[in-house]
Amino acid sequence: MLVLITYDVSTETLAGKKRLQRVAKKCLAYGQRVQNSVFECNIDWKQFLVLQSELMKIINTDEDSLRFYNLGNNYTEKVIHIGIKPSLDLEGELII
């Protein structure tokens, strides 16, 4: 299933800047960055629950926010992209 994750982390303090880096690094482990604080993650339900739990441990709920949008398995018709930085084929072959 495709999950869109967005976040807003307060960077007014050094601790906030560290949280921002940790959130981005954790999201990168599960998906691809599509905009500064937006990630697309093609994961199963178990991975989603683990990722959600890991991110909740990182953020400060008094200063930061997370949003998860579950686009499901039939997401190709739900995503429209216009402009630069085209989407990657999340189900295609990974070439390293």
Explain this structure to me?
The protein is an alpha+beta fold and 96 residues long. The protein has helices at 14-28, 45-58, and strands at residues 2-8, 32-35, 38-42, 65-72. The protein has a 4-stranded antiparallel beta sheet with strand order 2-3-1-4, with helices on one face. β2 and β3 form a beta hairpin. α1 packs antiparallel against α2 (45-58). It is globular, with a radius of gyration of 14 Å.
- What is Rg? 14 Å
| C-alpha geometry | globular
Strand order of the largest sheet: 2-3-1-4
Low-confidence stretches: none
Which class best fits the helix and strand makeup?
alpha+beta
Order of helices and strands: EHEEHE
Question: How confident overall, as mean pLDDT?
Answer: 86
Separation, N- and C-terminal Cα atoms? 23 Å
**Major β-sheet annotation:** 4 strands, antiparallel
Strand % is 25-35%
Q: Any key phrases for this structure?
A:
2 helices; single chain; 96 residues; alpha+beta; 30% helix; four-stranded antiparallel beta sheet
Task: Outline the secondary-structure elements.
Elements: E1 2-8, H1 14-28, E2 32-35, E3 38-42, H2 45-58, E4 65-72
Antiparallel strand pairs: 1-3, 1-4, 2-3
